[in-house]
Amino acid sequence: MKAVLSTLVVLWLLVGAVAAFQRGDFEDGNCSSIADTAVVVVLGPLNYAAPETLLETCSQPTRQP
């Protein structure tokens, strides 16, 4: 059972690393981008659930003078 669980975790993180690579997250080296890349890797296959398309439908607030 331990071997199956550890294999699933490694595959999960591998898919996350592929997603981070596809997004170009490994190009920048500042601290905030390293944290963002780590989150992308940890989220793994959830990166392919298209959260960006959900964010595109949000309207931006307008500034009042």
Please outline the helices and strands.
Layout: H1 2-23, H2 31-43, H3 51-56
Helix pairs in contact: 1-2
Strand content: under 5%
Largest sheet: none
Helix/strand order, N-terminal first: HHH
Can you give the mean pLDDT? Answer: 77
Low-pLDDT regions: none
Helix count, DSSP H or I runs of 4 or more residues: 3
Helix content: 55-70%
Helix-strand makeup class: mainly alpha
Q: How far from one another are the termini?
A: 62 Å
From the spread of the alpha carbons, the general shape counts as: elongated
Rg of Cα set: 16 Å
Number of strands: 0
Description:
This protein is mostly helical and 65 residues long. 63% of the residues lie in helices and 0% in strands. The protein has 3 helices and no strands. It has helices spanning 2-23, 31-43, 51-56. Helix 1 packs across helix 2. The protein is elongated, with a radius of gyration of 16 Å. The model has no long low-confidence stretch (mean pLDDT 77).
Summarize the model shown.
The chain has 3 helices and no strands.
Key structural traits:
0% strand, elongated, 65 residues, mainly alpha, single chain
